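User: As part of a screening pipeline, I want to sanity-check one entry by hand. Below is the sequence and the SMILES for zinc ion. Please return the complex as structure tokens so I can compare it with the automated output.
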Amino acid sequence: MRDSLTATGASSVGDDSARDVILDLVPVIRRVVAARVRDFQLVDDLVQETLARVMAARNRIEQDTLAPYAVAVARNLVVAVGQGQERARRTAHLMVDHTPNPPADGEVLQREEGTVVGAALARLSRQEREVLLAHEVDGAGTAELAARRGSTPGAIAAQLNRTRAKLRVEYLMADSGVSPPTDRCRPVLFALSAGDRRRQRELDTAGHLLECDCCLGLSTALFDRRPAQQDDDEATLMVTKDSDVVTARQLGREMAVRAGFTSTDLTLIATAISEIARNIVKFARRGEIVIRLVDEHGRRGVTVVARDAGPGIADTAAALRDGVSTYRGLGLGLPGARRLMDEFDLVSEVGKGTTVTMAKWR
Ligand SMILES: [Zn+2]
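Assistant: Here is the complex for your manual check:
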């Protein structure tokens, strides 16, 4: 059965199967939502919103854990809607978090007098606390800290990452007044917070989340509260509806700003992305767009990969000729996107789907 939890987690490794796992989650999520919500439209919205969140977090979650994570997210969203957070739900498709953001790590430390932060910091070891405070508050660099402690900058950076991941978990637990029921809870939550997928497998995070409601609840809060992954060089967006086209456009623009493009180029890139996103919504209904910041032989740039499992295009050469646009005058279509970017590649198979890969260089 495709829609059983165990079958969902059983796929092998690799990019393609990771994508399949996400698509296989749809019936599972739908079942969870439909069991609690009667309004069909609302069921659709909540399923899509859940998928968007799972997609956003999937690079940080080990594959077998995706299914229980998705179930937890779906349940939380149902509860949120039940609590009358209609406005939040309606704006959630823009993937903008309207709930107040937790303070960033630096701010957390500067509000040390707060009892929640104090309690979280108190859970760190003395050494972890000292290194973190020296780095975040006193501005000591990793090289300086390494010299001071007879370590290497790489080891200090890794330690800082682990400490931040820990602090996020401790902050959440102190903030929600939750104390974890088992000895495995903290290690599981630390591994999730750090995005350490190998450790997640070792700890059987998937199995734990199925049994432990406490960690299930905290794990979603952990990812929901993470600031939009501004530091990542890769962003993935699920595209299923018109508003996703807008989101894809904005996301592309943000990534391109970070690559240092001129404002003219920003517009070109954003427009090309919105054209291929529109193509997905119009012809395939569902797909994903991955935007990456790349540095190749000293060249900075952005690559965009748009994939769908839609009907495919029989004659790709024709689809790329101006004036043959299937839009009949609406928008620029694929030929337009090709002209706006430096590199453009279209691969399509009828009945299987379409992949558009494009790049722009500074
Ligand atoms: Zn637990």
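Points to compare against the pipeline: The first helix runs from residue 5 to 9. The radius of gyration is 22 Å.
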